[in-house]
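Help needed: design a sequence for this.
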């Protein structure tokens, strides 16, 4: 007689564990103040890092794996892990959240057309729409960014702004008085299978910077995020 198929209970977000991880003790209501506090505490507590693809370990995007790695194990991760975890949290709190995708322009030659390899979030509040991103390395947003163009917006760290090109937005950061483009995105919704394909590409392709070099960053209250980069090939690394 065949054994009955085991039904696995879908994972649910453990808000208590997540809030303990980021040191958040505030209210749990879908307001701008809550969003401001959670995004800042998340970015200051959970580091951006790419150890898994560098070590040829899988990068899993299901909720249970995200919680195990970023919450229980105290690890960090890159954009798909950071922003998917944050999306689960915001969804559970009652926020209206849409996953988006972007083409990274940071440190890319002029005229390059990169793939949509970055994840960010769009949060709809009664007072407007906000770009939320907890996973862009050394220049990640530590505050939600209002979806308004050509306006300099202060954050706890660097100033940011959005500019418009055709049907897309470009997010820029002001570094030493110069506006630098970070990525270009549209408002087309992305779903988990879209992120899984991009995640597999950047975590396994032999030319991916996440495979060939170490990246780690975390903003601190008194300074912007410091990005540690080690571009040595894995075969030349020790430890």
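Sure. Designed sequence:
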């Amino acid at each position: 007689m065949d054994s009955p198929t085991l039904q696995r209970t879908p994972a649910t977000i453990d808000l208590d564990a997540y809030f303990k991880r980021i040191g958040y003790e505030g209210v749990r209501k879908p307001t701008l103040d809550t969003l401001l506090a959670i995004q800042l505490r998340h970015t200051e507590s959970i580091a951006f890092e790419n150890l898994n693809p560098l070590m040829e370990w899988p990068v899993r995007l299901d909720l249970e794996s995200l919680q195990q790695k970023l919450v229980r194990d105290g690890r960090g991760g890159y954009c798909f892990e950071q922003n998917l975890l944050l999306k689960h949290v915001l969804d559970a709190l009652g926020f209206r959240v849409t996953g988006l995708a972007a083409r990274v322009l940071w440190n890319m030659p002029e005229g390059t057309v990169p793939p949509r390899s970055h994840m960010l979030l769009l949060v709809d509040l009664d007072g407007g729409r906000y770009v939320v991103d907890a996973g862009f390395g050394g220049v990640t947003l530590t505050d939600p960014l209002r979806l308004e163009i050509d306006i300099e917006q202060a954050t706890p760290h660097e100033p940011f702004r959005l500019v418009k090109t055709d049907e897309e937005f470009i997010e820029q950061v002001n570094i030493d008085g110069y506006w630098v483009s970070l990525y270009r995105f549209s408002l087309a919704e992305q779903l988990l299978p879209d992120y899984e394909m991009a995640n597999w590409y950047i975590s396994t392709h032999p030319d991916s910077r996440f495979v060939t070099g170490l990246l780690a960053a975390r903003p601190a209250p008194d300074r912007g995020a410091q990005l540690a980069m080690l571009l040595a090939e894995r075969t030349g690394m020790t430890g």
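The longest strand covers residues 116-125.
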